[in-house]
């Protein structure tokens, strides 16, 4: 195997890598500080589409993690970039929160339930039967089905919550239409993120805690991948997958000296 080039830019997942249940993971602040000091391009990624990058910046700063707004890349932003490339100034019926609606407004989309080009499903804590029924009818009438991410569950202090992927499965069952997922593990999210910071996959690394999203997306985008064991994946679970990360480390703290 050809030797990889030195890492010049870093992409890292947020939940399970930098924070866990609203608390910074030891070493996360040191890693981010080293990144900022190095001047190397970096992005913090999340499949969560609820919050805008500005919201996340404020929330993370309250936890003691200072991440500039321009260094945060969400599945909502990746979805908006995809739709802007596919059908500029289009229309969409949206199920989601401010992170998604703001991203779509920013690219000039009109949000409507009157014959929209797309039904766009994102993360929300208040999925309603009425909204899902409307989505089903619009898709049956010809709207294209887009989802921000395929995660079936999300974390909370009380335990796992149904997430976008689970609701997407319900809509697919009712319509027979599969959605296009813009977020991880779609390498599109990684490539649009790399483009946003002027980085190249062959000199970039992806850090994540999930094999099925973070590692897979990084692998398919041609990046070096690091799996940390502070999130959802155990060493035993790694062996169940037909692919492997480039490296497995205990936590983000083990990567500080690599920046």
Task: Please give a structural write-up.
- Helix content is 35%, strand content 20%.
- It is α/β, with parallel strands linked by helices and 259 residues long.
- It folds into two domains: 9-47 and 184-258, HAD superfamily/HAD-like (Rossmann fold, 3-Layer(aba) Sandwich), CATH 3.40.50.1000; 76-181, 3-Layer(aba) Sandwich (Rossmann fold), CATH 3.40.50.1000.
- The strands form four sheets. It has a six-stranded parallel sheet with strand order 5-4-1-13-14-15, with helices on both faces. A five-stranded parallel sheet has the order 7-6-8-9-12, sandwiched between helices.
- A hairpin with a 2-residue loop joins β2 and β3 (23-24).
- The chain is globular, with a radius of gyration of 18 Å.
- The two termini are 23 Å apart.
- Mg(2+) binds at residues 13, 15, 209.
- The active site is at 13 (nucleophile), 15 (proton donor).
- Pfam families: Hydrolase_6 (PF13344), Hydrolase_like (PF13242).
- It comes from Streptomyces mesophilus.
Order of adjacent strands in the largest pleated sheet = 5-4-1-13-14-15
Instruction: Work out the helicity level.
Output: 25-40%
Runs with pLDDT <50, length 5+?
A: none
Contiguous helical run count: 9
How much strand?
15-25%
Output the keywords:
259 residues; alpha/beta; Rossmann fold; 2 domains; five-stranded parallel β-sheet; 15 strands
SSE blueprint and pairings:
Elements lengths: L8 E5 L5 E2 L2 E2 L3 H11 L3 E5 L6 H10 L9 E3 H12 L4 E5 L2 H9 L3 E2 L6 E4 L7 H12 L3 E4 L5 E2 L6 E2 L1 H12 L4 E2 L5 H10 L7 E5 L2 H10 L3 E5 L6 H4 L8 E3 L10
Parallel strand pairs: 1-4, 1-13, 4-5, 6-7, 6-8, 8-9, 9-12, 13-14, 14-15
Antiparallel strand pairs: 2-3, 10-11
């Amino acid at each position: 195997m050809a030797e990889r080039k030195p890492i010049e830019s870093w992409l890292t997942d947020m939940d399970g890598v930098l924070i866990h249940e609203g608390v910074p993971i030891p070493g996360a602040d040191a890693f981010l500080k080293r990144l900022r000091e190095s001047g190397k391009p970096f992005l913090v990624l999340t499949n969560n589409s609820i919050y805008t990058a500005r919201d996340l910046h404020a929330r993370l700063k309250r936890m003691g993690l200072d991440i500039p707004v321009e260094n945060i890349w969400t599945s909502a932003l990746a979805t908006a970039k995809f739709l802007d490339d596919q059908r500029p100034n289009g229309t969409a019926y949206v199920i989601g929160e401010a992170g998604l609606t703001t991203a779509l407004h920013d690219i000039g989309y009109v949000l409507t339930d009157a014959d929209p080009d797309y039904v766009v499903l994102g993360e929300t804590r208040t999925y309603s039967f009425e909204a899902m029924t409307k989505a089903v009818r619009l898709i049956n009438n010809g709207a294209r089905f887009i989802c921000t991410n395929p995660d079936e569950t999300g974390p909370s202090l009380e335990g796992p919550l149904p997430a976008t992927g689970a609701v997407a499965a319900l809509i697919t069952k009712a319509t027979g239409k599969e959605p296009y997922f813009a977020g991880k593990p779609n390498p599109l999210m990684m490539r649009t993120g790399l483009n946003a910071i002027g980085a190249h996959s062959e000199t970039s690394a992806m850090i994540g805690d999930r094999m099925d999203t973070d590692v897979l997306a990084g692998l398919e985008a041609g990046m070096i991948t690091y799996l940390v064991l502070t999130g959802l994946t155990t060493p035993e679970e790694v062996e169940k997958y037909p692919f492997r990360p480039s490296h497995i480390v205990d936590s983000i703290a083990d990567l500080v000296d690599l920046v």
